[in-house]
Amino acid sequence: MDQQDTHGSTVEFRNVKRIFGNVRALDDFSLTINPGEMVTLLGPSGCGKTTALRILAGIDKDHEGTVTIDGKDMSGVAANQRNIGMVFQAYSLFPNMTAIENVAYGLRVRGVDATKRLAKAGELLELVGLSAQADRRSNQLSGGQQQRVALARALAIQPSVLLLDEPLSALDAKVRAQLRDEIRRIQSTIGISTLFVTHDQEEAMAISDRVGVMNKGILEQIDEPGKLYNKPKTTFVAGFIGLTNYVPAVAYSKSAVTVLGQQIDISDHSPAVAKGAEVTALIRPEEFQVERASEGATIITKSFLGPFTRLGIDVGMNDLVYAEVTSKEAKKFDTGDFVKLLVHADSVMIENV
Amino acid sequence: MKRQFTWFDRAIIAVTAFFFLAPLIAAAEYSARGYGNKGHTLSNYVWIVHEQGFWPALLTSMRISILTVVLVMVLMVPTVVYIQLGGRKYRRLVEILCLLPIVIPVVSLAIGAQVAMPKFMQSTSYELCCFYVVVAMPYVYRTLDIGLQSVALTTLVEASQSLGASWTNTLTLVIIPAIRSSTMGALFITFALSLGEYTLAILLHFHTFPTWATNVSQENLYGSIAISVTTLGGAWILLILIAFAPRLKALFESKKERAI
Asked: Once rounded to an integer, what is the mean pLDDT over residues B149-160?
């Protein structure tokens, strides 16, 4: 297809607040999306991620703070004047139109003549690999195909920003993974600034330039996926991204703790603690090294995860501690075996009990 | 999967068909009888179109019906859409308002509401249109409401607006076609109701098709039955045309494309 004229725009949320009754859906929310960047807002249900997206789309206007696109204040600009393409969580194809008519709709309402708009819609259907289904209606398309058409439809108007509101959540795992990669490919090809909202961390980590983790209306941390995983700045982020063990520890000093009999430094973003205080250390499964022992901790569960195997180990706490080892190494262990857990990290994040 | 009809299904269909068709067939047969046992003839149907006042009355009724359909759609489609989208708190109020035309006797409506009608509209066809809109409201509201509940209205509206569409575009290009069968149902109900309404027309001294038919029926018994059959047949043809119009249009367009 022809390269679109779309260029990435800069999107900025400045101190945006949105309150529903007694609930702060967005609390002093600030975020900048750079030109051509794909930013994902990730968080549990009700964290405010969709509210942020709807405010940018102009669907939700009842908020404080400022939203700008390329420096232009969007307050007072109606949703249909913002030139924003949006793909929804629910299937949103117009049932009375074929796939190509759906894609051409945005151009139709802009007064583009039929020949030009159908040619453009045809190009976009080709981009999403659905040229052969151009004349089918939504009830003749699978869920994945419908979302591809919705993506082509959103791109047809050459929007300054693309908004993706959990577009993959209704699809099965295989289609979701395929479409996820395809969205990233198309977004990179066109170079459009994109805000993606999801509660699926794998999805967020796989395709985003940066991921913002939200909790109770607050943007807890926004960073590249790797940094978010390895250097979480809050205990919520550490707990939400990936699997985390919460292990009792005692502050050995202001900068180190004793956990499972070992002394480990406390990471930068942890709260301050007094020497001798009882705290909880947050440790990822891959940060443990498992060694055979004649007594002590016991392996209770063993789950094969392809290249890795997850061991559920009873160390005398209420909950099991999970450690991940390579599946090759896991052959040495069986449930019921006694093992010793060694923390293999430079530092750990802690939270006060 | 193709549905298999049981003997019970067939019996129900047969009884229902007999219930509806037997009086129609009997009426059609009766209307084709000639005076003096001269066998069957179409003379009663020819008599209708040649009877004085037929065409003016029919044209008046058609004009009022078309205007009523336009008015009721312009009024009710946005109202029902609004209630579905954000105005749910007004739902109960609108439902009560839509029930009033059913519970208030037509005589009270005609006499009471005529007083409130602006002077420039009194005794014009527009006055009758306004009354017919009120009378059609309960049926149109229910039909459209059911149609809108069957589609993901909020998502469709948001999708349309995010693509740059105005409210008019969203209504005419997305919502109304998406609930085509409900819209057609509402349209047909309103048209049929306006075309056949008698009480309001006679109370307000309008010369419409039903008032004309009542007058001339007293002169010609077979002719009056022929008028009933014609009216009913006309309504059926209209219903079929409305129901199949989009398919006929699609068929016509595909033939044209093939010809190109």
From this structure: 92
Query: Is the model's pLDDT at A304 over the cut of 70?
Result: yes
Residues within 8 A of B (CB atoms), A 218-277 only: none
C-beta of residue A163 within 8 angstroms of C-beta of residue A39: no
Verify whether the Cβ–Cβ distance A86 to B177 is below 8 Å: no
Tell me the ipTM for this assembly: 0.81
CB A299 within 8 A of CB A334: yes
Given a contact cutoff of 8 angstroms between Cβ atoms, the answer to whether A260 and A315 are in contact is yes
Nearest alpha carbon to residue A16 among A70, A72, A75: A75
Q: Does A105 touch chain B (CB under 8 A)?
A: yes
At A77, the pLDDT band (50, 70, 90 cuts) reads very high
pLDDT above 90 for B102: no
| Predicted confidence (pLDDT) at residue B23 exceeds the cutoff of 60 | yes
Closest chain B residue to A89, measured at CA: B155
With b meaning 16 or more CB within 10 Å and e meaning fewer, what string describes B80-93? bbebbeeeeeeeee
- The reply to whether A91 touches chain B by the CB within 8 Å rule is yes
Q: Do A79 and B155 touch (CB under 8 A)?
A: no
The rounded distance, in Å, linking the Cα atoms of A283 and A348 is 6
Would you call A124 an interface residue with chain B, using a CB distance cutoff of 8 Å?
no
Q: What is the pLDDT of residues A190-209, one digit of tens each?
A: 899 999 999 998 899 999 99
pLDDT tens figures, A17-56? 999 988 899 999 999 999 999 999 999 988 999 999 999 9
> Cβ of A90 under 8 Å from any chain B Cβ?
yes
- What's the pLDDT band for A7 if we cut at 50, 70, 90? low
A82/A3 Cα distance (integer angstroms):
22
Contact B163 A88 (CB under 8 A): no
Residue B163 and residue B33 in contact, taking contact as beta carbons nearer than 8 Å:
no
pLDDT over 70 for what percent of chain B?
91
- Residue A135: predicted pLDDT: 94
Separation of first and last alpha carbons in chain A: 57
With tokens 């309150």, the residue in question is A19
A304 close contact with B: CB closer than 8 A: no
| List of chain A residues whose C-beta atoms are within 8 Å of the C-beta of residue B161 | 59, 78-80
Name every chain B residue with its beta carbon within 8 A of the beta carbon of A91: 152, 155
Task: State the Cα–Cα distance between residues B92 and B99, nearest whole angstrom.
Answer: 11
User: What's the pLDDT tens digit per position in A272-288?
Assistant: 888 899 999 999 999 99
Is the CB of B111 inside 8 Å of chain A's CB atoms? no
Residues of A in contact with B164 (CB under 8 A): 80-81, 83, 106, 109-110, 157
A108: which chain B residues are within 8 Å (Cβ-Cβ)? Answer: 173
Is it the case that residue B206 has pLDDT exceeding 70? yes
Between the alpha carbon of residue A67 and those of residues A53, A54, A57, A209, A306, the distances in Å are 11, 11, 10, 21, 44
